[in-house]
Amino acid sequence: MEQERRRRTWYLGPIIVVTLLTGFFVGKGWERTGYAVETYEELKTFSEVLTQVQKHYVDDIKVKDLVQGAIRGMLATLDPHSAYMTPEMYKEIQVETKGEFGGVGIQIGVKDNRLAVIAPIEGTPAQKAGIRAGDFITKVNEEATKDLTLMDAVQRMRGPKGTKVSLTIQREGTPDPLVFTLVRDIIKIESVRSKIIDNNIGYIRLTQFQESTAKDLSRTLKQLREQKLQSTILDLRNNPGGLLTSAVEVSEQFVGPGKLIVYIKGRDGRKDEYVSRSKEQPEEFPMIILVNEGSASASEIVAGAMQDWGRAVVVGTTTFGKGSVQTILPLADGSGLRLTTAKYYTPKGRSIQSTGITPDIVVKPQPPAPVKLAEKGKDDEGRMQKQKGTLPPGLPKTGDEVSSKSNGTVVEAGGESPPEEDVQLQKAIELLKTWKVFKQLRPL
């Protein structure tokens, strides 16, 4: 059982990346266990409909197109995360877990029955243009997203490097839609980044949960320990998830051996537990985990496990709330089926589906201050256009978000805030400093 569990790859994610990185599990396909008689009866009806369409529809149409359309419709009745993948899409999703793919760099999911941005990937066209976690995508190239599946939306946003795609965004607090024209690029993800802040605090940023993330994290932790740092900040903000095995391997570097990290449960009620296999007891240094609404899936597993075991203080805003597991099943013709097969739970049995992880300390980010385009001269506008690219005709060309009414209001791009303006990070630093002070207190 243990070997079989490790041989499979679960992928957790809402989170289809525009160009696509979600959480999933690659399986071998369903075993043939026989089908109920009523299933065959319904398939007779399907066969009759297919025959009538072939005979009488006004235009010639390929049987393959009809069958694929029927499959997509069937899966659309289940949930937003179950979908059919063509052979090309199936190959692409296998490649993307390695950390390099093509597109604009947006992870998307469904929230409140709308197509939502889980998080933009750092350093990508989407992040540089100012698209933010929590944005809702209402149009792709002037086509409404209301009736699109996640996979359909992804397909429309993909394309060769250098080509353009237009996204219409609805943002909370912004009355008018925002229109972005993004130039597609090759997206390369460095999943682990680190630095020393405030002289003695180790800061680690995880951007995705890939195959190499746990090993890269282990190497980073070793380097930080060699520098005698005694506290750590693990930043999972805008991390949309990835591989379940990676989330488990990351968590076990902090919680110690034999600890339950997460368990999944399907409709048969059977629990599949993932327990830390680490043989070393980790150092009990003070630790803060930063999360926000862009932290989803595998990120929520890590934050939930650390919170349940009292290993870290979680700071930020409530996470996305993606608590289901998709299984990627290969089909005979090279295509694939992405099917929701289970839900996952934290060590204390919490399901975060649609609710997310609530931080121990809620700290909302500082809203960016709007900048009036009218206050800038023409030379400044031209310089900004050259530096940041262009928006659709008729909009001020700054590369930042702009109201579709062209009212002269430009919103600051959604990249990382400078450390001194990042109120969540500053709160984490403050907590760690206080932690050290209280630790030094001794009773009389």
Which structural class do the helices and strands define?
alpha+beta
What coarse outline follows from CA principal-axis ratios?
A: globular
Superfamily (CATH H level) name of the domain at 192-322 and 346-365 and 418-440 = 2-enoyl-CoA Hydratase, Chain A, domain 1
Q: How does CATH name the architecture of the domain at 192-322 and 346-365 and 418-440?
A: Alpha-Beta Complex
Would you identify the regions where 5 or more consecutive residues have pLDDT less than 50? Answer: 1-9, 13-34, 370-415
The total beta strand count reads 26
**Helical run tally:** 11
Mean pLDDT: 80
Radius of gyration: 24 Å
Distance between the termini: 55 Å
Largest sheet: 7 strands, mixed
Range of helix content: 25-40%
Broad CATH class of the domain at 192-322 and 346-365 and 418-440: Alpha Beta
Examine the coordinates and then state which fold CATH places here, giving the name of the CATH topology of the domain at 192-322 and 346-365 and 418-440: 2-enoyl-CoA Hydratase, Chain A, domain 1
Residues in β-strands, percent: 25-35%
Account of the 3D structure:
The protein contains eleven helices and 26 strands. With 444 residues, the chain is of the alpha+beta class. Among the domains are: 2-93, no CATH class; 192-322 and 346-365 and 418-440, 2-enoyl-CoA Hydratase, Chain A, domain 1; 371-411, no CATH class. The strands form six sheets. Strands 1, 3, 4, 17, 18, 21 and 22 form a seven-stranded mixed beta sheet that branches. Strands 13-14-15-19-20-23 form a six-stranded mixed beta sheet, with helices on both faces. The longest helix is centred in the first third of the chain and has 20 residues, at 37-56. The N and C termini lie far apart (55 Å). 41% of the residues are buried. Residues 1-9, 13-34 and 370-415 have low confidence and may be disordered.
